[in-house]
Amino acid sequence: MIEIRNISFSYKDAPALKDINLYIAKGESIALIGPNGSGKSTLLKIINGILFPQRGEYFFDGTSITAKRLEDNAFSKKFHKRIGFVFQSSDSQLFNPTVYDEIAFAPRQMGLSEGEIERRVSDLLKLLQIEELRCRVPYHLSGGEKRKVAVASVLAHNPDVLVLDEPMNGLDPKTKRFLRDLLIKLNSHGKTIICSTHDFEYVDGVFKRAVVFSKEHTIIRDDEYGRIISDDEFLYENNIK
Amino acid sequence: MDWLFREDRYEPGSDSLKFIDKSLMSILKILSKIDRLGGQRRGILYGVTPPLKLISTILTVVCVSTSRDATFLLSAGLFVLINLIMLEKSDRKRVLALGITASSFSAVMLIPSMATGNIINSLIIVYKVLLTVSMANILSVSTGWFDVSASLKLLLIPDIFILVLEITLKYIYLLGEISLNMLTALKIRSIGKNNNKYSSISALMGNLFLKSKEMGEELYSAMECRGFTGEYKRVLAFNISRIDAVYAIIVLALTAAYF
């Protein structure tokens, strides 16, 4: 589904990714782990077509994703429909006047009927246990509530791939546990989950595979999640634990 | 809930994203400009201490603007030319482009004057515009914005004014980054036909305004917690190197030529 071949990316003179190769199959749940500044967020942005690598290629379902390809509006919309991105900062993502409008934003653009939109929004408010926030202004919500609304707003267009950038950051334990259960549920129903994380305590059971980034911006290990997370020596050595 | 667990069959309708793309590009341009000007550069002129560059630029601009002496104006032209040669290629292009554009505009505005026979004076004005705009831009491309604002202390600008200027610059960058993220989020969620693009943008601007208010209040609280009572002292490091001494001598010689 997602194939990354020899990708390198630099911000001016500062390298962020060096020669990255990665294949992610449909329905996988994969954690990207590594120290701060190792390039995890940059890779997530490349996967979402926000940044484009200076070297290497990125294929989504066999189609090369380039800046030029995404200039084709129809393709760009179809691509973004299939891949949803939950930003690290929910504030960046929420801009509608109410939580309802926020979640209904993408379904409205898809041309769904108001009845179908209402159904999707209500289902998501219920799924994320934020029904009482329906008419609230997103800006004034707490960090955990904002994150839930951000996840709901992305799920509303029913993407096949859900990409999350440090979703557990700044959340209380209860919300973390809730988010973990939600990710497990979504993955069990066939959604591909790609997530960068530092928070190993609360993601038990979510990921089957982990990709470890080094501070030199390369992938140093690609293995079963459980095997990596139990390798304390490796995690300490690489400033992950 | 079944809709979430099965694949949608969705074909997007035609809709243009140009408005969002253009907004993204213009913010990116501003951010990269601020970021670029704060970075470390290689070259003699980039190494000249900022306060000296600021004073020299002001002095040269004032002298060029008020002089009618051909020898002085030619010397000033030579000085600008040497400065240009010492810039990086991309910066040189930018300075030249801005200088030529500004002087072309003034030439167009002076056409009536030239038509009535006042050719020499008009050409002098065009030349002066070219020199002064180039000097200002040479300072701009070769000096970080924060260095320029700190150098204002030498011109007896109050410290608190410099503080406000520096905070403004910092927040233009920070809020620019936030708006860039917001526009990116809007773009990647624009998966169909959005008839209310402008209202999405205005909602985004509203959020940005609230965010800036919140950040401003937090900054002020943080400053208060660190003992800020409305007074601010900006320390200006002013070390003279060999390059600075040579640069100062050239500028002094030029100023002497004015008199």
Automatic annotation (TrEMBL), chain A:
<dbReference type="InterPro" id="IPR015856">
    <property type="entry name" value="ABC_transpr_CbiO/EcfA_su"/>
</dbReference>
<dbReference type="InterPro" id="IPR017871">
    <property type="entry name" value="ABC_transporter-like_CS"/>
</dbReference>
<comment type="similarity">
    <text>Belongs to the ABC transporter superfamily.</text>
</comment>
<dbReference type="GO" id="GO:0016887">
    <property type="term" value="F:ATP hydrolysis activity"/>
</dbReference>
<keyword id="KW-0547">Nucleotide-binding</keyword>
<feature type="domain" description="ABC transporter">
    <location>
        <begin position="2"/>
        <end position="240"/>
    </location>
</feature>
<dbReference type="Pfam" id="PF00005">
    <property type="entry name" value="ABC_tran"/>
</dbReference>
<dbReference type="InterPro" id="IPR003593">
    <property type="entry name" value="AAA+_ATPase"/>
</dbReference>
<keyword id="KW-1278">Translocase</keyword>
<keyword id="KW-1003">Cell membrane</keyword>
<protein>
    <submittedName>
        <fullName>Cobalt/nickel transport system ATP-binding protein</fullName>
    </submittedName>
</protein>
<keyword id="KW-0813">Transport</keyword>
<dbReference type="GO" id="GO:0005524">
    <property type="term" value="F:ATP binding"/>
</dbReference>
<dbReference type="GO" id="GO:0042626">
    <property type="term" value="F:ATPase-coupled transmembrane transporter activity"/>
</dbReference>
<dbReference type="GO" id="GO:0043190">
    <property type="term" value="C:ATP-binding cassette (ABC) transporter complex"/>
</dbReference>
<dbReference type="InterPro" id="IPR050095">
    <property type="entry name" value="ECF_ABC_transporter_ATP-bd"/>
</dbReference>
<dbReference type="InterPro" id="IPR003439">
    <property type="entry name" value="ABC_transporter-like_ATP-bd"/>
</dbReference>
<keyword id="KW-0067">ATP-binding</keyword>
<keyword id="KW-0472">Membrane</keyword>
<dbReference type="InterPro" id="IPR027417">
    <property type="entry name" value="P-loop_NTPase"/>
</dbReference>
From TrEMBL, chain B:
<dbReference type="InterPro" id="IPR003339">
    <property type="entry name" value="ABC/ECF_trnsptr_transmembrane"/>
</dbReference>
<feature type="transmembrane region" description="Helical">
    <location>
        <begin position="43"/>
        <end position="64"/>
    </location>
</feature>
<feature type="transmembrane region" description="Helical">
    <location>
        <begin position="70"/>
        <end position="88"/>
    </location>
</feature>
<protein>
    <submittedName>
        <fullName>Cobalt/nickel transport system permease protein</fullName>
    </submittedName>
</protein>
<keyword id="KW-0472">Membrane</keyword>
<feature type="transmembrane region" description="Helical">
    <location>
        <begin position="119"/>
        <end position="142"/>
    </location>
</feature>
<dbReference type="GO" id="GO:0005886">
    <property type="term" value="C:plasma membrane"/>
</dbReference>
<feature type="transmembrane region" description="Helical">
    <location>
        <begin position="236"/>
        <end position="258"/>
    </location>
</feature>
<keyword id="KW-1003">Cell membrane</keyword>
<keyword id="KW-1133">Transmembrane helix</keyword>
<keyword id="KW-0812">Transmembrane</keyword>
<feature type="transmembrane region" description="Helical">
    <location>
        <begin position="154"/>
        <end position="173"/>
    </location>
</feature>
<dbReference type="Pfam" id="PF02361">
    <property type="entry name" value="CbiQ"/>
</dbReference>
<dbReference type="InterPro" id="IPR051611">
    <property type="entry name" value="ECF_transporter_component"/>
</dbReference>
